[in-house]
Structure to design on (378 residues):
């Protein structure tokens, strides 16, 4: 079988990392091999347990591209891949440098809206300049890439424009999830999880995402504070970790919401959390293709989502309640509507699950990836 080498920054739990691991595990016609460059290997055992080779360079954080290349070259020559597929910015740049020494097709993933105006508008002058220089460097070096795989049409369009990539050089293949992970855990296990977290007889709102400003979690906290004054039995759970934790924790403490909002950190039991939750709220300002949203769809958890193109590529207004991105008052209104209309929310959730199985079931996504690789090799 043909061999694809996946080069990625880390194997920490994240949307791009988790999706790529799940896709590779389900290959039938391609042999995957993974190298993660920097320290961080939470997902490594999932690959090893499925018979996939993983190499850890464990280089300290930073750019240090020449150091990485020196360690990488002998390893790649031993692996002898038919394709090298890189994911996330640092790995993309390293892969482009590597191509000068290893003459095999190079694929890059497009998973983020890195250069959209919304991101620039939230930066100070120095950071705007820094991002612009990175964009120029990214655009110049991406000429060495043979093919890009974008996880959404929205990402395809924004990156094509920002990096001057011809649209016909970008294939769109969505992220996927295994429907078998979302078949229910039973009443006893739900109760055990509630006891572990400390949940009483409460209505549970859940958000799953990295703790970053662009994920809109501060909007959610502000809306939740107002709504919980009218609905005191609400509990908000946020699963994920990131650099925005201190900001969120400060808001929680300042507004004395410690008993109503729990920051769970990284969790390995997202399907279980989705099952015990009454509403899934996803207020991101911009995304790639949101894996957490696809998981909520598959779990049949009623959804409220911001009206960004990436979310709307996953689901429609018939499958979720959609609110205006960054507008806290609209989010408040939509949460209240959802609480007052549980039957309508469940109807939407059932439609969302059906749609997710049709569009995002992992075996279908893995098959699409394999087709792209084999066509590129041929």
């Amino acid at each position: 079988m043909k061999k694809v080498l996946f080069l990625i920054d880390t194997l920490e739990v994240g949307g791009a990392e988790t999706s790529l691991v799940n896709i590779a595990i389900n290959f039938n016609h391609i042999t995957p091999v993974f190298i993660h460059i920097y320290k961080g290997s939470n997902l490594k055992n999932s690959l090893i347990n499925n018979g996939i080779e993983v190499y850890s360079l464990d280089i300290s954080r930073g750019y240090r591209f020449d150091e990485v290349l020196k360690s990488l070259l002998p390893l790649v020559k031993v692996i002898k891949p038919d394709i090298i597929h890189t994911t996330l910015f640092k790995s993309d740049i390293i892969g482009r440098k590597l191509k000068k020494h290893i003459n095999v097709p190079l694929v890059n993933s497009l998973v983020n809206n890195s250069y959209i105006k919304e991101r620039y508008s939230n930066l100070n002058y120095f950071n705007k300049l820094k991002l612009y220089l990175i964009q120029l460097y990214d655009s110049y070096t991406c000429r060495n890439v043979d093919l890009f795989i974008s996880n959404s049409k929205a990402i395809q369009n924004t990156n094509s424009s920002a990096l001057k990539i011809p649209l016909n050089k970008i294939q769109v293949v969505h992220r996927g999830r295994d429907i078998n992970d979302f078949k229910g855990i039973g009443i006893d296990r739900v109760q055990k999880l509630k006891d572990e977290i400390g949940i009483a007889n409460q209505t549970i709102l859940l958000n799953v995402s990295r703790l970053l400003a662009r994920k809109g979690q501060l909007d959610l906290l502000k809306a939740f504070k107002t709504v919980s004054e009218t609905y005191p039995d609400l509990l908000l759970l946020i699963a994920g970790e990131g650099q925005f934790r201190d900001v969120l924790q400060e808001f929680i403490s300042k507004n004395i919401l410690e008993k109503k909002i729990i920051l769970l950190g990284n969790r390995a039991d997202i399907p279980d959390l989705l099952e015990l939750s009454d509403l899934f709220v996803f207020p991101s300002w911009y995304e790639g293709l949101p894996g957490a949203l696809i998981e909520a769809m598959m779990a049949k958890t009623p959804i409220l989502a911001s009206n960004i193109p990436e979310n709307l590529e996953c689901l429609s207004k018939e499958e979720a309640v959609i609110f205006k991105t960054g507008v806290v008052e609209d989010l408040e209104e939509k949460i209240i509507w959802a609480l007052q209309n549980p039957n309508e929310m469940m109807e939407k959730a059932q439609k969302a699950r059906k749609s997710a199985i049709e569009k995002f079931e992992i075996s279908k996504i893995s098959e699409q990836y394999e087709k792209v690789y084999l066509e590129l090799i041929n």
Observations:
- The longest strand covers residues 30-38.
- The chain has two domains: 2-176+361-377, 179-360.
- DSSP finds 16 helices and 13 strands in the chain.
